[in-house]
Amino acid sequence: MEAINLQNQGVALKRQGKFDEALKSYKESLELKIKYQGGPESIGAAIGYQVRVTQGKGPALDGAVTRETLGLYWEEVGDAEKAKSVRMEKPKEILCTWHECKGPMMGLESAKKCSACATVFYCGAPCQKLDWKRHKHFCTKLRPVVPPISQA
Q1: Is 66 helix (H, G, I), strand (E, B) or coil?
Q2: Would you state the torsion angle of the CA atoms of residues 108, 84, 121, 58, taken in this order, to the nearest 10 degrees?
Q3: 54-73 pLDDT, tens per residue?
Q4: In the chain, how many H helices and how many E strands?
Q5: Would the pTM count as exceeding 0.85?
Q6: What's the Cα-to-Cα distance from 34 to each of 58, 66, 100, rounded to whole Å?
Q7: pLDDT tens, position by position, 65-109
Q8: Separation between Cα atoms, residue 55 and residue 19, nearest integer Å
Q9: Strand 112-113 relative to strand 121-122: parallel, antiparallel, unpaired?
């Protein structure tokens, strides 16, 4: 129960723009889930269970919410590959990254992605603009590093 409270606290802090505090709360929540559920491979199951309990909207949506939650976590700790791969596990069941979007799941082919890092997906430009306040703190960490062109 404490892990769920920490997860909810993280969501509230993120909505207030307190991203560092939110990330700390998410990490504590995940540490508790790992401690009591047996290991990192069970984090998705733990979050999925929480989502089913709180939303009760079916396994496809539950899975999409779980993947997006994990994607946010990996994005915020700076692991672009994990953030992108977890979001793309089911390419026909993607949620908009903007946490207040009420839109339905979408397929990867119709999702709009951040042009700088390509690790977050949106239903359209309005949601991308709304999420920029949060995402800009992590986007620069996720951009690929391009080595300078050597001059011969």
Answers
A1: helix
A2: 70
A3: 444 566 776 787 788 888 88
A4: 6, 2
A5: no
A6: 24, 15, 27
A7: 778 888 888 887 788 888 899 899 889 989 999 888 888 889 999
A8: 24
A9: antiparallel
